[in-house]
């Protein structure tokens, strides 16, 4: 997924590695000046991919954490669990629209899977991941500012901030995910892994021009993907499936006074939403490529499953041909 200074279209372009790794494929805008006349224009052109991922992820969190806050703090009067699935689905859909010029990753694990399987430049991964995490942190901070008074009332006082598992009125779950009390460590990891696998499998399917594809309905299709994951797989761990979505707001909750319990709750669950999505998204993308994808920009569809890219000498000469 790349973003050259562009307007977003839904035409699938596969002439470059970066273009082929997009959720929404950006194409160059004819109105974009070659040399922007103003300093800010130059800065924006240089940093537009980072800005795109930042604001796309911020929108995701504003709608996602926002709906959780409304449902929780109203004691279910202003929404239900289904409302949460709707809210997160809307957050993803609108975040994808906002971040089209960068490819609409809004998830470090999605960017990572594109680096592995769609030739997306590895040098861009740290930039995307940082922008996504900062965007998530900003969104979480805005939600806290908006619902602070309601949190005070719900928790029982302005200086009280508690975490699930430590209080019946805990509100830390507004910002990040916490597992159900019955979940084992293995169960926690597998729940996030399978949800992340489904996510990436569907992203590749929706963006595959050799399949039915979703075209300009890709954001809407992703809305239903996220809604489905939340409705069917969200109960046990909260379906973080995104390092930025979970770690960024978790860090914000720690900074605003929820204490070290945000890291220790659920038997130190915090690391699961950081690690599992990378394994899940990479596996989901690989699974799609092995069985369904026919494009030549995936290592799966190159000789020896892409091993030639990793070895400095031809496999035939190195004696590995018979082993692969």
TrEMBL record:
Subcellular localization: Membrane
Chain residue ranges for the region called Disordered: 1-33
GO molecular function, one term: water channel activity
Ranges of biased composition (kind: Polar residues): 1-19
SUPFAM superfamilies referenced in this protein's UniProt entry, alphabetically: Aquaporin-like
Transmembrane segments: 54-73, 85-105, 125-144, 165-183, 189-207, 219-241, 268-288
Catalytic activity as recorded in UniProt: glycerol(in) = glycerol(out); H2O(in) = H2O(out)
The protein's name: Aquaglyceroporin
Organism: Aspergillus nanangensis
Glycosyltransferase recorded as keyword: no
